[in-house]
């Protein structure tokens, strides 16, 4: 019956179908990026937030004076912090995962099979800095432990599970070799991509992203010296029984720490001209960073654009269905004269709109899929660099795609329902005599 009604009014429904299809193609982009941004910011725990209530962030500063500023004094300050009884792990870094970070996007492949490539962000960490233990990065089963990975030798690299599966098809890849490629214009002019670096994989950790708003979890870490010429941060992991707020308050006030009260001493966190200039809890630091980070602004902006877009869709659908239902007034009058109830007429119009929306969404989603697979996920400028494992914020791209399709259809169904609500209700409440006047 519904298909028959749609076909009998195919001219009017054709325009509606084309309109909803166009809306489906355009709205998929907004919905996809809005869901990604919302998920990344509010629901996906970024690396470094493992037991975040025990994390403290400090800023290393320099004061004028006759003492020197060197790697030795920087490490001496680190050792002072590490020696505090409340502290479990410490690492020095210009930035840490979840915050600003020195990283860059590059292309990698298996050394044995250069056709297996993926794009990934590479960052660095200071060797012997208890990096993985402090950050809370978890080594996968079969990989060296976090303590061992923190002592990764030169020429080694620690990769995420996603990179391992993209390049080798498995996550048990410790000891294998990988290659970093140079796709710069200069390299391409010299005859094609050139090999920039070769790495031996030291281990594999669970997926993480360098920033909370990153879309993909393709990440690589390589060891490098901590640059003394830059003013680094220090990430401190306290022991589970230590209260981070109390620890920070005592350091900020220059008071003895709870562990030193019996001795009556006072902690002086200074080595040479290096000092621990400021300290705050990880939670407070991330809240402060959120005020200057544009990730939450992006999510808000996408939400506003999506709301404005959907409002225009509602108004457009309202006008379209108003005209269409006016042209079907005589059909509605005949149905009412034969005893059709108001709710039957309303549900008939709504089911037709729901089916038309479903068909239009399927076509729009198929069109968007061609763009996603052939351009966004396979283009040389994309995040995945023709990756063989098209992963995303959920386990696989296809699961991601199906989830977005369902969200989009339900959202457009709500929008179409709002658009037909008034004209369908008015049509259902028309008296048979009034409706038959249009014959």
Could you explain how this protein is built, in words?
The protein is of the alpha+beta class and 439 residues long. Among the domains are: 2-43 and 294-436, no CATH class; 103-224, no CATH class. Helix content is 48%, strand content 18%. The chain has 14 helices and eleven strands. The chain has helices at residues 2-8, 10-43, 71-83, 131-135, 146-149, 161-168, 185-189, 244-253, 282-292, 295-327, 329-337, 342-376, 397-428, 432-436, and strands at 55-62, 87-93, 103-110, 117-126, 156-160, 177-182, 194-205, 219-224, 233-238, 270-271, 274-281. Strands 3-4-8-5-7-6 form a six-stranded mixed beta barrel. It has a five-stranded antiparallel β-sheet with strand order 2-9-1-11-10. Strand 10 and strand 11 form a beta hairpin. Helix 1 packs across helix 12 (342-376), helix 2 runs antiparallel to helix 10 and helix 10 runs parallel beside helix 13. It is elongated, with a radius of gyration of 30 Å. Mean pLDDT is 75; it is low at 260-266 and 376-395.
Per-chain topology:
Layout lengths: L1 H7 L1 H34 L11 E8 L8 H13 L3 E7 L9 E8 L6 E10 L4 H5 L10 H4 L6 E5 H8 L8 E6 L2 H5 L4 E12 L13 E6 L8 E6 L5 H10 L16 E2 L2 E8 H11 L2 H33 L1 H9 L4 H35 L20 H32 L3 H5 L3
Parallel strand pairs: 4-8, 5-7
Antiparallel strand pairs: 1-9, 1-11, 2-9, 3-4, 3-6, 5-8, 6-7, 10-11
Helix pairs in contact: 1-12, 2-10, 2-12, 2-13, 10-13, 12-13
């Amino acid at each position: 019956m519904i298909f028959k009604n749609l076909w009998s009014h195919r001219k009017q429904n054709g325009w509606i179908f084309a309109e909803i299809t166009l809306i489906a193609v355009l709205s998929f982009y907004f919905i996809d990026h809005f869901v990604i941004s919302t998920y990344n910011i509010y629901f996906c725990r970024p690396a470094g937030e493992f037991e975040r209530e025990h994390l403290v962030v400090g800023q290393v500063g320099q004061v004028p004076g006759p003492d020197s500023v060197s790697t030795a004094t920087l490490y001496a300050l680190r050792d002072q912090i590490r020696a505090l009884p409340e502290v479990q792990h410490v690492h020095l870094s210009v930035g840490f995962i979840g915050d600003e970070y020195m990283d860059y996007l590059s292309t990698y492949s298996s050394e044995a099979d250069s056709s297996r490539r993926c794009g990934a962000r590479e960052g660095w960490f200071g060797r012997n800095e208890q990096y993985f233990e402090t950050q809370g990065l978890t080594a996968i089963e079969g990989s060296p432990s976090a303590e061992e990975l923190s002592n990764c030798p030169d020429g080694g690299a620690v990769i995420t599970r996603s990179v391992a599966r993209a390049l080798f098809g498995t996550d048990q890849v410790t000891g294998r070799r990988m290659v970093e490629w140079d796709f710069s214009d200069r390299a391409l002019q010299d005859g094609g991509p050139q090999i920039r670096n070769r790495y031996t994989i030291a281990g594999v950790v669970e997926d993480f992203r360098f920033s909370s708003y990153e879309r993909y979890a393709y990440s690589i870490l390589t060891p490098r010296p901590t640059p003394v010429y830059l003013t680094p941060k220090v990430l401190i992991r306290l022991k589970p029984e230590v209260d981070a707020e109390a620890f920070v308050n005592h350091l900020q006030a220059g008071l003895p720490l709870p562990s030193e009260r019996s001795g009556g001493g006072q902690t002086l966190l200074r080595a040479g001209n290096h000092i621990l200039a400021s300290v705050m809890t990880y939670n407070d630091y991330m809240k402060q960073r959120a005020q200057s980070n544009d990730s939450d602004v992006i999510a808000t902006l996408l939400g506003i654009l999506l709301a404005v877009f959907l409002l225009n869709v509602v108004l457009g659908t309202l006008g379209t269905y108003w005209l269409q239902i006016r042209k079907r007034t005589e059909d509605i009058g005949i149905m009412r004269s034969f005893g059709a109830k108001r709710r039957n007429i309303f549900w008939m119009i709504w089911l037709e709109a729901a089916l038309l929306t479903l068909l239009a969404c399927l076509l729009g989603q198929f069109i968007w899929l061609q763009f996603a697979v052939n351009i966004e996920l396979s283009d040389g400028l994309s995040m995945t660099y023709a990756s063989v494992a098209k992963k995303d914020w959920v386990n696989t791209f296809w699961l991601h795609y199906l989830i977005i399709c369902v969200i989009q259809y339900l959202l457009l169904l709500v929008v179409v329902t709002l658009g037909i609500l008034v004209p369908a209700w008015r049509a259902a409440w028309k008296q048979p005599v009034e409706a038959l006047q249009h014959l």
